[in-house]
Each structure stands twice: as C-alpha cells, then as structure tokens.
Design brief:
single chain; FAD/NAD(P)-binding domain; 3 domains; five-stranded antiparallel sheet; globular
C-alpha cells in the first residue's frame, strides 16, 4: 500500500480539514501520520466534490509540470515562476514549491496510480524547457486511493457537511461551524487546528470548470475571521466549449487551430492567456466565437468527447466561451500552510501566493499535494501543543470565544442571480467601473437579522463573501496591504 511519510508519535491534538479534494485528503493523511485525531468535512461526497476529482474529465490527460530534463533545475523553474508571477507571489512559498515540485510529481504518480503517456517530458507553450509530463489515471475515481488510505488511518469523514464559519478562542481557531445539510442544523466541530482545503473561487462566477461547492468558502470563512488574504482577485480563465458539460479543447488545439471571432479569424497567439483575452473581448462585443481544427493533426488534438459532440458534427467547429478555471489568489500562507490566524492553515486553491499574476500549466495538482502535505504535517504536530484550546469556546461561540461567519443574505435566489449578472462579464476582463458597480451592489445587499438559514442561504452567503473580497482586491481597496502582510509563525518550519 502506498505510504509517503513515516508515522510519528501521537500529538493527541484534534485537526479538522475542510474539503476532500487532493489538498484536503493529503492534509488529512499527514495530520493523521503526525498523530492527530483528524476529521474531514466535505459538502457532498468524499473525494468526489472537488476540482481535483474533475481534472481528468476536463481534459484528455493529467499534466504535471516540474523540472525533469537535463539542464533544468529547481532554480531555473523558480525563475520562470517569478517571471510569470510578476511580483504578486509570496516568494518564500514560491521557492518552496519550486524546490519540491519534482519529488511531488513522482509521489503523485505513485499515490494516484498515474501512467505516463510519454517517455520524455514535453515542451509546453510558453516554456523553453521540457517540463510537462502527461499522465492517464488508472483509477476511478481519481482520488480513491487517498480516500482508502485516510479511512485506514482512522480519519473520520462527515459528508454533506458545509463549513460556514470558524470558532475563535482569543487569538486562536478553536473549531469549525458547519451546516449539516440533511438536517439543516448548524453544528460545531471543535479542533486545535483547522485546515481550509475547500477549493477556490471558480463557482463564484456563473461559468466555471469548478464544482458548485468551490465558491470561495475559504476566502469567505477566513475573511470573516479576519485572516490575511493574498490577492483573492487573481484567477485563471480559459476557453471552454460553450455548452455544458464544459470541456477544455487543450492548449495545443487552441493555439494551433483557427479561432473565428464571428467570421473574422483571430491572429495567431503565442500564449493561451493571449488567446483567452481576445476571445473574451469578442464575446463582450456580442460575437460568436468558435474553433476550427486546421487539419487532421489539429483534429486529433481535440478531446474525443468534443469531436463526438453534435455541434462539432454539424459545423466542424467548436463553439467557445470563457470560464474561470483556477484560483491563483486566496488565503495568505507561509511555506508550511500557516495563515495569519494561529491554528488556521490553508492549502490548494483556497490558499494564495504560490504563483502570482499568471499560473503555469500543470501545477495545480502539485500545489495541492505539496502544501496539503506540509499543512497537514504542521497542523498535526502543532495541534498537540495547543490541545484543549477548543474547550475554551463555549457552545455557539460561548463566553470565551466567538463565531466568525459570513452574513446570511435576504432573498438568496435574487442574490445568486445578481452575482451571475454582475460577475458573468468579469471572468477574464474586469473594467474598473463594472467592478465598482458590482461591489457596490453586493456590499449593500440586505442581510437577514434572524434565523438559522437554509442550505441555499448559506451557499449564497459564502458566494457573496468571496465575491466582495475579490472585488475589493480588484478595485485596490486593501490590495497592497493584502499582499504585504505576514502570516502567523507558530514555531519551527
């Protein structure tokens, strides 16, 4: 059985992990190996409600980008990450990622039972060095091996549990408040450490490749508690098929094919980002956008499920739209996953700072794995030092503690529609006036003054909290402070 890290002696601390994607499950495993008692809260089904579960359904293969070839190195990889980051990354965290990317890719192949498609790494668009390793999953679902290992180690899993807030005791986190979706009751899960691995902000936008649960829970919950955020407005958008289910045609197909903006061909682009921006501009002007393969080789670049679609069979074109794909910003962390609040950790797309303005292709799973493991190990060990702080928070926040939660809105359905209307056009291009108009409307949205809230109300509250944080950052309201702040230093790194 795969096991990446040796077991350590029990810390007797309680750790709650919010989310059961690759980041959450790797964090849970390492916290359990560090001796903590671990609970995983997930809003739907364990291992199946995250972006990492869907990655092999979105594109024809899984891509892992790391230094592989002779002449490449972690240092050169770091230089390219910095160049793409444009100064908006947290440099110590970026350096940590570059240092561990190669080993993480090797570990992931084993942990998820991935088969390599190529003998040698491939050169990705925009790179001068061959760093892309294409893999196919031999497991269905993708995360099944990690779920099984968590259960073997005694990790307790609560499905259909939507995290809606944090319990605080003094300057520390003391647990998680969650909606038990079957009963509709708000419950508490006390902890000495909490790891937010609940995905990014994709589903804050109406068109996204992310599951509906990935609507910025981490930003909304951590932000309500006063945690430092790192440029939460930074996102990656990509061209996708215009009709659900949304598929990515692959970078090679987009850059090598003929893109029609209306009936006008797009000038050939050197990067996916450049093509995405031009497609977004055309859509804003009401033009239909489509992709035509140039020849049989270009046709072969399209995923088989796209080639088999009825629209492609009729037109020999792929109608395109723009969707938010990946959260680059998020909760500010250090290289061990610590946030600015003691006892609170973050990893995966919930965290920000690993990469800056532009995300390199093939790095999402590696980020989740590296910082999921690091946050899990750190939280597991440090939780033991603070065991018992969770008892200081009484029921519902108690006399010695408080509950930090996003505000429940009035008329959640109308709020969801307003966010769709405001943020739909902002998936890629974000004119300042539209950002301010959206922010003004959402900040002024009336909130409920009583009541526990329904499933729909809490989902809308989370989405509104994340949207406001993103829009404020985009508008420059606190952006410099967000980027420059420091995270909590809980001890040895």
């Amino acid at each position: 059985m795969w096991q990446n890290s040796p077991m350590t002696q029990a810390s007797s601390g309680q750790v709650v992990v919010v989310g059961s994607g690759l980041a959450g499950l790797s964090a849970a495993l390492e916290a359990a190996r560090a001796g903590a008692q671990v609970t995983v809260l997930t809003p739907a089904r364990v291992g199946r409600d995250s972006s990492s579960h869907r990655v092999h359904a979105l594109a024809p293969w899984i891509l892992l980008t790391a230094p592989w070839a002779r002449g490449d190195s972690p240092r050169r990889f770091l230089e390219d990450l910095r160049r793409n980051g444009d100064g908006l990354q947290r440099d110590d965290v970026t350096a940590c990622f570059a240092e561990h990317a190669h080993d993480a890719a090797v570990e992931l192949r084993e942990a998820l039972d991935l088969a390599r498609m190529d003998d040698q790494p491939v050169v990705l668009p925009g790179d001068a060095v061959a760093r892309g390793q294409r893999c196919l999953s031999r497991q269905t679902p993708l995360l099944a091996p990690l779920v099984a290992e968590c259960l073997r180690l005694g990790v307790q899993v609560f499905e259909r549990a939507l995290a809606v807030g944090l319990l605080l005791s003094g300057d520390r986190v003391a647990g998680v408040l969650f909606l038990d979706r079957p009963s509709g009751a708000i419950r508490e899960s006390r902890a000495d450490a909490v790891i937010l691995a609940c995905g990014g902000v994709g589903a804050v936008f109406p068109r996204t490749t992310a599951p509906r649960w990935c609507r910025g829970s981490g930003i909304a919950i951590a932000g309500a508690a006063g945690a430092l955020l790192h440029w939460p407005n930074l996102t990656q958008a990509i061209p996708v098929t215009a009709t659900p289910p949304l598929y990515f045609p692959t970078t090679a197909a987009v850059l090598g094919g003929r893109i029609l903006l209306g009936e006008q061909p797009l000038q050939r682009q050197a990067s996916l980002d450049g093509a995405t921006i031009e497609i977004a501009r055309a859509i804003r002007h009401g033009k239909a956008v489509s992709l035509e393969p140039m020849n049989d080789d270009g046709l072969a670049l399209l995923p088989e499920r796209v080639r088999a679609s009825p629209s492609f069979a009729r037109e020999r074109r792929v109608p395109l739209a723009i969707a938010v794909h990946h959260a680059i910003g998020g909760i500010a962390i250090d290289r061990s996953g610590r946030t600015s609040i003691a006892g609170l950790y973050a990893c995966g797309e919930a965290a920000g700072g690993v990469q800056g303005r532009r995300r390199m292709m093939g790095t999402g799973l590696l980020e989740a794995w590296i910082f999921g493991k690091r946050s899990g190990t750190t939280a597991g060990l440090e939780a033991g030092r603070h065991a018992g702080s969770r008892e200081a928070a009484g029921a519902g926040g108690g006399r010695h503690g408080k509950a930090a939660m996003p505000a429940l809105p009035r008329d959640p359905a109308a709020l969801e529609a307003a966010i769709d209307r405001r943020l739909g056009p902002l998936a890629c291009l974000r004119p300042a006036d539209e950002v301010i108009e959206a922010l003004t409307e959402l900040e002024a949205w009336p909130v409920a003054t009583e009541g526990q809230g329904t499933d729909a109300a809490w989902l809308a509250a989370i989405r509104r909290g994340a949207a406001v944080a993103m829009l404020r950052s985009e508008a420059g309201l606190g952006g410099a402070e967000i980027a420059a702040g420091t995270v909590h230093d809980g001890g040895e790194r």
